[in-house]
Design a protein that fits this description.
2 domains; alpha/beta; elongated; 8 strands; TIM Barrel
């Protein structure tokens, strides 16, 4: 049971949106794979996560499941999948489980979050809560910046995390809060707390895969550590390909197929009659 491992395990989570990436993550030992609504920005080219539809999330979640058959996969509830209330939210959550083969869903904190969480769990859908910076509502609040920097707002984040726990979530994701607040919340909760921009004292960490490997470069949050710069590797590969095509260096003989001499002669003779 996940809760029982809280004091003796460190969870490493990453996002994935396609089968090949999911396969890599599973082989590398990632504990959970999150099919995040961040797909909207890092893959689909939207200006924000709120543009992502439920159909798009299911499409990518199904691909992730095909690539990682044994991993625990969490589907991120997009704003468009919950904006019309609990009934819509439940149907969206069921789609993640039934259609995409996910094991759980993630739900951002909001006015209806507890009601939705209670409903999901009643229908045996495991839930990860999300508090602190919640991208789906950030623009309506105080923007994309560190949350809980004053005592009052920090207490509200703590209350939200505890409220999620009381409803029965298996974990809480804590985004962009001071490390002191994250440390307190991690110690207070009996369930694992997964941090992103929340310092080193959480029970685990999550990052967006495209940030980690240096593919997404439109902006770089302070909490991101790049473990590779794959954009430069990919750019070099494509540049070399373009050059070799234009100079007729590619494809070479070893990249081509041939006919037998007999069949080639027959082809030429018949072709001349056309």
């Amino acid at each position: 049971m996940i809760r029982a491992k809280k004091k003796r395990h460190r969870w490493a989570l990453l996002t994935a949106y396609d089968a090949p990436t999911a396969e890599i993550l599973e082989k590398a030992g990632v504990d959970f794979i999150l099919v995040g609504d961040s797909v909207g920005m890092v893959v689909l080219g939207y200006p924000s996560t709120i543009c992502v539809s439920m159909d798009e999330m299911i499409h990518h979640a199904k691909a992730v499941r095909r690539g990682a058959k044994r991993s625990l996969i969490i589907g991120d509830m997009p704003l468009q999948g919950i904006q019309h209330g609990s009934r819509q939210a439940l149907e969206s959550a069921k789609r993640f489980i039934r259609e995409a083969g996910c094991d759980a869903v993630k739900l951002e904190w909001g006015p209806k979050a507890l009601r939705m969480t209670k409903l999901f769990i009643r229908h045996k859908i495991p839930v990860m809560g999300h508090v602190g910076l919640t991208p789906q509502t950030a623009r309506k609040k105080n923007g994309f910046k560190v949350q809980g920097q004053d005592a009052k707002s920090a207490i509200e984040i703590l209350k939200a995390a505890k409220a999620f726990e009381d409803q029965g979530v298996f974990s809480v994701l804590l985004e962009c809060v001071p490390r002191e607040v994250a440390r307190w919340i991690t110690r207070e909760l009996r369930i694992p707390v997964i941090g992103i921009g929340a310092g080193p004292d959480c029970d685990g960490q999550v990052l967006v895969f495209h940030d980690l490997v240096g593919i997404f470069k439109k902006f770089r949050p302070r909490f991101v550590k790049r473990y590779a710069e794959l954009d430069s590797v990919m750019m070099c590969a494509v540049t070399n390909y373009v050059r070799e095509v234009k100079t007729r260096k590619f494809p070479a003989k070893k990249h081509s197929f041939s006919m037998s001499a007999k069949e080639l002669t027959g082809f030429r003779n018949e072709a001349k009659q056309l």
